[in-house]
Amino acid sequence: MDEQPVIKMRRKGRHLTQSMLIPSEGMIAAALRAARPGQLSDLGALRRALAQAHGADACCPVTVQRHLVRFSQDGSAPFWRVVDPDRPFARRMAGGPEGIRDRLADER
To answer: When comparing pLDDT for 108 and 70, which is higher?
Structure first.
């Protein structure tokens, strides 16, 4: 990866801070393409792996969700590999929960 990660410090609790990776679309797209086709992968695990790979304590969930919604609209990355169709977030994706189920089934 030749992208420079953006890592910001943020408050965590009353007296602590944590480093937060703000992932680029390219980082998320690469992670989605590396996920196993036809299987639903854990979005939380993807975020943890990205944070660890870039030396951060956490990965911004809001930024990841924004990228996933955009990927669902333009089809530039296999977002369906990490979006659980049974969770409310799936309704924000183009095609909704049924579209995600269909794409996972097509990859099997």
So the answer is: 70
Q: What is the pLDDT of residue 10?
A: 86
The partner residues of 10 in beta bridges, in order of sequence, read 18
Examine residue 43 and state whether it is found in any structural domain, yes or no: yes
Q: Which domain holds residue 39?
A: 6-107
Query: Phi first, then psi: what are they for 49, rounded to 5°?
Result: -65, -40
Domain contains 68: yes
Q: How many CB atoms lie within 10 A of CB 48?
A: 15
Residue matched to tokens 């095609």: 95
Torsion 56-61-63-67 (CA) sign? positive
Q: Are 104 and 80 in contact (CB under 8 A)?
A: yes
Dump pLDDT digits (tens) for 25-52: 999 999 999 999 999 999 999 999 999 9
Please give the model's pTM, rounded to 2 decimal places: 0.90
**Number of domains comprising the chain:** 1
In this prediction, residue 12 has a pLDDT band, given cuts at 50, 70 and 90, of confident
